[in-house]
Design a protein that fits this description.
Elements (H helix, E strand, L loop, with lengths): L1 H13 L8 H12 L5 H25 L1 H6 L15 H20 L3 H16 L10 H21 L7 H19 L3 H7 L4 H32 L3 H20 L8 H26 L2
Helix pairs in contact: 1-3, 2-3, 2-7, 2-12, 3-5, 5-6, 6-7, 7-8, 8-10, 8-12, 9-10, 10-11, 11-12
């Protein structure tokens, strides 16, 4: 069936399996809010909300950037510029994903529902920031960084300022690896007039900014552990994150970006999952 085919292509286009980047940090926020596992009801709708939100954001980004992707040799084979999907189908997918996100928020609590429109605005408007500012990487980071705070709200129905430390950590984590990823398009961004840190600082300078962002991430994670009074297992989790970040940066060099995909996709998925495992174990063993 054509619709099922288009849906499959859309899911491949947005790489929905990469929801794993932010989902473990959202689950950390939920577990910190609950002091352990949230209820099955809360967990189910948090996961639905996360997957729907990321699906909407990624599909909207591909739709908004279709002309840019068509002009960039690296991205010209993506589904929209290659003609494998119609813009209308992608827009419909975005709308349905947004509605599912709002539905999920409504199943959690009133504050989650009220803030769902704000969250969607952040997620969707990110796509246009690269046209106006070199700091679009930080905006993307914030779009994913709100996940743990949103999960806290989903569990508690209120916001505790302490969870903003995890939001800040995720913001700088994502901003750092997005700067790394943007190094691939250094020359294209210059030609197309798009804004990015690599365009203005060059690849070598951008690598140092990415390192700085990841140092900031670690600082916020350490502060998070102190503020929440977490134990040794969570501290080991931060240590693991540090080691993996060091390895990630060792894969990317100013004169060799050939291992960038491994650094971007594989290592960051491992970082988020392992940090969640250690935080979850710390919380559960202290009960």
């Amino acid at each position: 069936m054509p619709v099922l085919h288009d849906l499959r292509v859309t899911l491949e286009m947005i790489k929905w399996e990469h929801s794993i980047f932010a989902l473990p940090f959202a689950l950390c926020g939920a577990m910190l809010a609950a002091g352990g596992f949230p209820t099955v009801h809360q967990l189910l709708w948090i996961v639905v909300a996360m997957v729907a939100a990321r699906s909407a954001a990624m599909a909207f980004n591909r739709w908004a950037d279709a002309a840019i992707d068509a002009a960039n040799p690296r991205t010209s084979t993506r589904a929209l510029p290659a003609g494998h999907l119609s813009p209308g189908f992608v827009v419909t997918f975005v709308v349905v994903s947004c509605l599912i996100f709002v539905l999920a928020a409504s199943q959690l609590n009133r504050l989650a529902l009220l803030l769902s429109a704000v969250a969607l605005a952040v997620l969707l408007l990110y796509s246009y920031t690269k046209r106006v500012t070199r700091w679009s990487h930080v905006v993307l980071g914030f779009a994913l960084g709100i996940a743990p705070s949103a999960a806290w709200i989903a569990v508690r129905g209120s916001l505790d300022p302490r969870i903003l430390l995890l939001t800040a950590a995720v913001t700088f984590w994502v901003a750092g690896f997005d700067v790394l990823y943007a190094c691939q398009d250094y020359e294209f961004d210059q030609q197309a007039g798009l804004h990015s840190i690599p365009r203005y600082l060059g690849v070598r300078g951008a690598l140092w900014v990415a390192r700085g962002f990841h140092v900031a991430m670690v600082g916020f994670l350490v502060t998070l552990l102190i503020v929440f009074g977490m134990g040794k297992l969570a501290a080991v989790g931060v240590g693991v994150v540090i080691l993996l970040l060091l390895y990630e940066h060792s894969l990317v060099k100013a004169n060799d970006l050939s291992k960038l995909n491994a650094a971007f996709f594989t290592m960051n998925g491992v970082i988020s999952v392992l940090f969640f495992v250690f935080v979850a174990a710390d919380l559960l063993l202290r009960r």
